[in-house]
Design brief:
The chain is an all-alpha fold. The chain contains one helix and no strands.
Length: 49
């Protein structure tokens, strides 16, 4: 049983680190998506031929 507790603790720490990284990077990701949409690289923006 102690091995499962250690594994669960490691997963919790790793998950928390991933969530913290995502929370820190979300503003940059949103900015990049806006730039892609302005340039026309988004899936919904197809220029007519």
């Amino acid at each position: 049983m102690p091995a499962r507790r250690v594994l669960a603790a490691q997963l919790a720490v790793a998950g928390g680190a991933v969530l913290a990284l995502l929370a820190k990077e979300i503003p940059g990701i949103v900015r990049e998506v806006r730039i892609w949409r302005m340039v026309g690289l988004g899936a919904g923006h197809r220029r007519p031929a």
